[in-house]
Design a protein that fits this description.
Elements (H helix, E strand, L loop, with lengths): L1 E5 L5 H10 L3 E5 L10 E4 L4 H10 L3 H9 L4 E4 L1 H6 E5 L9 E6 L10 E4 L13 E4 L4 E5 L4 E6 L2 E7 L2 E4 L10 H12 L2
Parallel strand pairs: 1-2, 1-3, 3-4, 4-12, 5-6
Antiparallel strand pairs: 6-9, 7-8, 10-11, 11-12
Amino acid sequence: MKVGVLALQGDFGAHARALVSVGAEPQLVRVPADLAGVEALVLPGGESTAMLRGLERDGLEPALRAFLESGRPVLGTCAGAILLAREVRGPAQRSFAALDIAIERNAYGTQADSFVCTAETDDPDSPFTGLECVLIRAPRIASVGDDVTVLARVKSEPALVSCGRIWAAIFHPELTRDTRVQRAWLRSAASRA
């Protein structure tokens, strides 16, 4: 599967390497033409305000909005989850409102407050039980809509969620050797094709 990785700012290189490790073909996305032939898309961690400025500057915003509306699979991590959220708080900012979640920016603190923990799951047989989560200036999912499934939690709060082909994580799955998130997302994407 050819998977685009938004490459304006943030940890897009780590995402590309993780995708290669699970057999996907990453395509760095910097201009609208880079989305041609892309079957799925990753919105990486980084700084959401800087990403929004880059999207506007490089004319990528309409193309990204069209991609999101096409129903193709999207995975947003950290800042990428913020871009996908229906509502952004702390402070408020615009987003693509592609996923019915409310999210609070930097809710777990500053860069110095970053931490690694193990995900909690509601189902002990979940494929995400024991998943290592790297949180860096992480946002917090304050609420989820009725159609959103919570796949994993951190500190008892939603940390990995999905609604159809759109997945969001407040942590950085690309910064560990554990590829369960990428594999499950790609499997889910392929099964709905």
